[in-house]
Each structure stands twice: as C-alpha cells, then as structure tokens.
C-alpha cells in the first residue's frame, strides 16, 4: 500500500507538471497567432496593403468590387453620369478629360495614347485620399479598345484612379444646340455640321457635365508628361476672380495669318502679334476649365449667344478652322480677364509647320519658350523628344 501511495503522489505531480507545460505551450502559440493576425497591422503589413485595408474600412466596402482591392491605383470603370461625390465622399477627385474617338482605327493615335498614359503614370503622384478620374469621350469601338489597354498602361500607377467613358453621340446631342452658331465661324467645313459639335466640347463643358464636377482639365492625346499632373491642377488656385479658363498661348503665327484682314485694317492693335506685347491667341492642347466659374460668369455665357458670336466674328473678320481654340482666341482679344495664362511649359508645342510656310522670319518670336517643360505637345504629328 505504501508503494502504491508513493506511485499515486508521483503520478499526480507528473500530471500537474505536464498540464503546466501544455498551458505554457498553448499560451506561446496564442501569442504567435496574435502577433501575426493582430499586431502585424502596425508592424508587418506593407504600406500599400495597409492603405487598402484602411480605405476599405472607411468606405464600408459598399462601392468597390473585390477586384478593386488588388492594389492602390486599381481602376474602377463607371458609366457616364456616375455620382462620384456620393460614391466616395471621403475622397478628393481630380478630373481630366480626353477625346478618344476613332482611336481603334488609327495605330498612330494608339501610339500617342500609350506615350501619354505611360508618362502620366510615371510622374503622377497624389495623396492617399485623392483620386484621379480619367474621362474619355469615345465611340463604342474605341471604348472597347480603351477598356482593353488601359489596365496595362495604368499598371504601375502609384495613385488611385477611376475611368469614365462618355458616349460621343450623347455628348454631341447635348452640345449641338449650344455651339451650332459658332460652328459656322470656327469649323473646317462650311456650315454647321452636327458631327463637328464635339470639337467645341470645352466651350460648353459647364453645361454638359454634372454639377458635382466643379473643375476639369481637358488634354489632347498627343502629349507627354514630364512632371506630376497634380501640379497642373494647382494652377486653379491662381485664377483671378473673373477667370474661367486656364490656357497656354499659341506658339506659332497661326493667328497672325488668320487675322490678316483685321491686322491690315488695324495695324496697331497687337492682334496676332507675338509675345510679350502682342496677342498671339491660344492653343487648346492643355486647358483648365473652372466649370463652377463658367456657370457663374454672366459675361462668358453671354458670349456663347449666337448674336454675340456673329458680332465678334464680323468685327475681327474672323474665319477659323480649329474649333474651341478659335473661339477662345477671338473672345480673348476683347476679354482677356476670362483667361488665366499658363506658362508655356505646360503646353510646350513642338509643331513648326508655319516656319516652312511663309513665316520663317518671325517664327522664333512665337515659338520661343524659356520656361521649364512640364508637358510636351507633339501637335501636327511632330516627334516628341525622349526623356
């Protein structure tokens, strides 16, 4: 019996010791699990993964697909007219619009688009609560192409972005009543062609875009970005109270030529003369459209009226073919306060066509740009320098 009692005591101690060890092992295992699954949010998650998690929690997962959470910068393709403010009120949106029609039929346009988007991505940086919204005015075939190539072109984007496609037919229907009169004066063909209306989109952008969009940048496809596009949006902050559009001067003597009759009758006017003292006109390759200011400006909206367009065109003996650019140039002759002059570096035009067509003696006066180049514009199919 004594031996049995000793064996029982020893077995009790051994059992107690094993339970204690098991408890220690379980506690250690729990600590490891807790570290990786709870503490890692602050210590081991990459900054990108952490941002995605925070953004998902903030939005309540109510408006994003699972695929959108793969990485910061993942695109969300939405339909025209989507309410961005209701979709993500905690984010600031920067809107940029490009014409994207007939791109499916042109390998040249496709090449330009690739250069533009890759350079935009390369230099683009935005804050974590900011979204670059890319608007494309497109036909059905070009939209299909865009949806296919954009994910590849935007793959390395270090910022959040969204893509919105606008049906060119729908926009044209909205624009035509507003711009029909000015088409007679600023279109390549004679008469007001319905299809030409889209080339005046910027003129009436404030009337066709949702009221929630207060500012938008319109950009040509034949651009190459050499700086962060976010910096371009900062120019809105430098607008005067009267300004509604930010734009760069024309860097060729095109309006010296177009205004030839008015210049002959008014040789001291400065119309069409080179900078700094002259009025060379504008180039529409890069434009900042302050839609809210455009909506408020009684002067600007009065200038859209057919009678005012006809009056100014007659006064300046003006007949153009460059659409919105011609209209802005003409009204800028009388109302420069409507325009915020951008540095030539924001739209460094490279075309030299007029140098070889009668204006070699004065070409340099228009073409010169001593400012740092932020955006190259390869207009008239001019090659853009490599970085």
UniProtKB/TrEMBL annotation:
The keyword Membrane applies. Residues 49-69 are annotated as: Disordered. This is Xyloside xylosyltransferase 1. The keyword Transmembrane applies. One of its GO terms (cellular component) is endoplasmic reticulum membrane. Keywords: Membrane, Transmembrane, Transmembrane helix. The chain crosses the membrane at residues 20-38. GO terms for biological process: protein O-linked glycosylation via N-acetyl-galactosamine. InterPro entries: Glyco_trans_8, Nucleotide-diphossugar_trans, XXLT1.
């Amino acid at each position: 019996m004594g031996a049995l009692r000793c064996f029982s005591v020893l077995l009790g101690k051994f059992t107690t010791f094993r339970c204690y060890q098991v408890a220690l092992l379980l506690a250690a295992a729990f600590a490891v699990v807790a570290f990786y699954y709870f503490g890692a949010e602050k210590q081991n998650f990459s900054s990108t993964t952490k941002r995605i998690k925070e953004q998902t929690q903030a939005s309540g997962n109510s408006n994003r697909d699972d695929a959108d959470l793969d990485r910061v910068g993942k695109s969300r393709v939405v339909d025209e007219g989507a309410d961005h403010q209701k979709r993500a009120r905690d984010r600031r949106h920067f809107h940029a619009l490009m014409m994207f029609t007939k791109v499916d039929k042109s390998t040249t346009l496709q090449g330009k688009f690739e250069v533009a988007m890759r350079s935009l991505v390369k230099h683009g940086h935005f804050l974590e609560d900011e979204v670059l919204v890319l608007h494309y005015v497109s036909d059905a075939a070009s939209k299909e192409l865009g949806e296919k190539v954009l994910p590849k072109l935007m793959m390395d984007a270090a910022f959040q972005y969204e893509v919105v496609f606008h049906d060119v037919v729908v926009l044209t229907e909205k624009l035509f009543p507003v711009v029909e009169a000015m088409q007679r004066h600023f279109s390549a063909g004679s008469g007001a062609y319905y299809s030409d209306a889209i080339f005046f989109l910027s003129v009436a952008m404030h009337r066709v875009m949702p009221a929630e969009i207060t500012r938008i940048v319109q950009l040509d496809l034949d651009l190459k970005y050499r700086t962060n596009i976010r910096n371009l949006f900062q120019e809105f902050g430098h607008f005067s109270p009267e300004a509604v559009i930010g734009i760069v001067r024309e860097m060729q003597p095109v309006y010296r030529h177009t205004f030839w009759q008015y210049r002959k009758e008014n040789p001291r006017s400065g119309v069409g003369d080179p900078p700094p003292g002259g009025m060379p006109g504008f180039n529409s390759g890069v434009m900042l459209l302050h839609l809210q200011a455009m909506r408020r400006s009684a002067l600007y909206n009065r200038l859209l009226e057919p009678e005012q367009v006809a009056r100014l065109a007659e006064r300046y003996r003006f007949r153009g073919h460059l659409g919105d650019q011609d209209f802005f140039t003409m009204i800028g002759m009388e109302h420069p306060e409507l325009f915020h002059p951008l540095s030539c570096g924001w739209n460094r035009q490279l075309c030299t066509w007029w140098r070889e067509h009668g204006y070699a003696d004065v070409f340099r006066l228009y073409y010169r740009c001593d400012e740092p180049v932020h955006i190259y514009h390869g207009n008239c199919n001019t090659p853009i320098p490599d970085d």
